[in-house]
Specification:
The chain has 215 residues and is α/β, with parallel strands linked by helices. Helix 1 links the parallel strand 2 and strand 3. Helix 1 runs parallel beside helix 4 and helix 2 packs parallel to helix 3. The radius of gyration is 16 Å and the shape is globular.
């Protein structure tokens, strides 16, 4: 099996990930000091695909905000660096034509794009763009399980917590997105075709339909 190149558009990540990181680059306005979210995302990807090679695009400032230019430029860089899958554990309420174009170019190049989406409510971008796999958290799912959620806001859900035994340690759609990216990277590692991954997820879904929560 050949190691899969996974791009992370996020904050930077810490030195503890060592040789898993094969390239890193900071984009305009990025903060190199705040590594918490990037570390969490990287850890979840590697939990499900330990041999993944990480390409880290640091786009967020201290307030965990990023400009469209930085995201677009980082996506282009990841495509040039040979990323086979790009994790985008973030979302924005309005569509950007420039980001939509960048996602389309990446998808047409064969890159699998995985982005965070809300479990319910308004759609988020880039998850809602054609060619992106939109992921929300689903507490029904154990780590490694998937739900198929054709709800209009998300395509799939998976385990949302950083620590499966303790929800108080945090989690959410961004963590679920990283977990699904790791699962998909593991499938690419075995030679699975990128074009067939969405159908595979539908077939393997442990749950179908939205998670129902009661007050």
């Amino acid at each position: 099996m050949k190691s899969v190149r996974v791009g992370l558009i996020d904050s930077g990540i810490g030195e503890r990930f060592g040789s898993a990181v094969i390239a890193t680059r900071s984009f305009s306005g990025a903060c190199d000091d705040d590594l918490e979210h990037g570390d969490q995302v990287a850890a979840c990807v590697l939990q499900h695909c330990p041999a993944a090679c990480l390409l880290v695009a640091n786009v967020f400032n201290r307030r965990r905000e990023a400009c469209i230019d930085a995201i677009v430029d980082s996506l282009a860089w990841l495509v040039d660096e040979g990323a086979q899958l790009v994790n985008m554990s973030f979302g924005m309420p309005q569509a950007s034509p420039r980001l939509a174009h960048a996602c389309r170019v990446a998808a047409e190049a064969g890159v699998v794009l995985v982005a965070a989406a809300a479990a319910r409510g308004n759609i988020a971008f880039p998850a809602a763009f054609d060619g992106c796999i939109a992921v929300s958290g689903d507490a029904r799912c154990a780590p490694g399980e998937v739900s198929w959620r054709p709800t209009g806001t998300a395509d799939f859900g998976t385990h949302p917590f950083l620590d499966p035994g303790n929800p108080l340690h945090g989690g959410g759609a961004s963590i679920a997105t990283a977990r699904l990216s790791g699962m998909l990277a593991a499938r690419l590692e075995t030679g699975a075709a990128a074009a067939g991954l969405r159908a595979e997820l539908e077939h393997r879904a442990r749950y179908i339909g939205p998670e129902r929560r009661y007050a």
